[in-house]
Structures are given as structure tokens and as C-alpha cells.
Task: structure prediction
Amino acid sequence: MYHRIDNLTPDQSRSPLMRDLTVPTADFEAQVKYLADNGFTFLLASQVETALRNHQPLPQRAVAITMDDGYKDNFEKAFPILQKYHACATIFMVTNNFEKPDRLSWSDARTMRDGGLGYGSHTVSHADMTTLPGDRLDYELCESKRILEQGLHVPITSIAYPSGAYNQTVIERTRAAGYLAGWKKGGGPVQPGSEPYMLPRVRVHGKTDMEAFHRKVWSGYWTMRMNAAAQQMVASNHVRHARQRPA
Ligand SMILES: [Zn+2]
Result:
């Protein structure tokens, strides 16, 4: 889970929030290169959602890069790096942000779509949906989906909850609006059986160094390996107990 990919100006660097949101361009390239060099399969968020829904296996080494909010640097800085390493990503777009300064234009978004990137909604106005009355909540969900589908001619099946804020009502209205999945702000790697409207993500911060990045990207792989080992232990205990039982 990323937001901005860029090198900050000295002015921007003074803001702790900006520093946290922004991964330096060279760091992002090193991270994508690491994933490519280590045989990770790059997936769109929608491919993860589909595999979960259909109980289909995914490659052991798989990663879905996501970028929230729709910053211009996603197109100017991140996209060329993704292209260079034959990687893809999914952008969760706040539709009100289109054409604003420092934000994506429709033309940027279409170029990236044609380059293999995927899209999801991040609502119309980045509102905290847990605080909205029903009609405003439905508007944020339905209108952002409609605008993205009309402008990009791709089905929009998922949403990333702004600030990761959701509750039971938000989940119910998200489902009713026709979304098949909802993504949170953090929570670790996606696992088989993850709740489709509470999908976790692993956040990469501006200060995330390579060592921390390694831990983050391997966390899903090691969780799967540990679960498999635990299952094997349970199974072999069953066999041993069965053998020890007197005939
Ligand atoms: Zn956001």
C-alpha cells in the first residue's frame, strides 16, 4: 500500500505527514526491482479478489501493489518504473481529484490503464464513510464507481476505504453498491479466507528501509509456510495417535 512516489522538495520535507506518505523514487525502484529479481508475480487487486472469491490458489510469491488517492507522481514517477520491471499496480482513485494540480488527469489514468494498471474507487471526496448519513454514503460509493467506469471503460469492483475507516453499515452499503471487495489501510498480508470486504494491506511508508521492506513483502509467504507446517504437524500427530491406539 503506497500513496506518493516522489522526491520531496525541501519545503515538503518539513511536513511529517508528507514524509510518511511519500516513498522516494529511488527507493520505489529498488523495491520493485527487488520483487522482480526475487520472482514475485505482480497481481492487480482485482486478481487477488477473484482468486479469494473462487478459492483459487495464487503463486506463493505474489504481490499486489496499490496506490491511494491518485497523485500525479503515480503517473510521472511510479508508472515508468512499473513498466521497466513489467510490473502492475492498482490505483484507488478519489474521483474529485481528477484534473486537480498534483493529481492525475483522465489522460494519465487512461495511459496507465492501457499500460496494464488497474483501478478501484477511493470514494468521490475521500470522506470518512463511517460518519456519513445514508444518502451521502451511497453517493460516495455509487458516484465514484460510475465516474470511473464511464471514464475508463473498466469494471470497478473494489474500493479502498478512505483512512481505512469502515463499519458494518459501510460494508453493507459497499456490497449493495455493487462492489465485490473492500480494502483496509493495513492489517498484514491477504490470506486464503480473508473477508472480502475487510481485505488487509501492508503499508510502505516514506521511511521504510530495504530491511523493513523485505520483512513486509515476505510476511505473506512466511505466514502461508507456517500455516502449512502447522497443518502438517496436526496431520502427523493424528497418524501417530492412530498408530499408538491398541488394536
Ligand atoms: Zn486515501
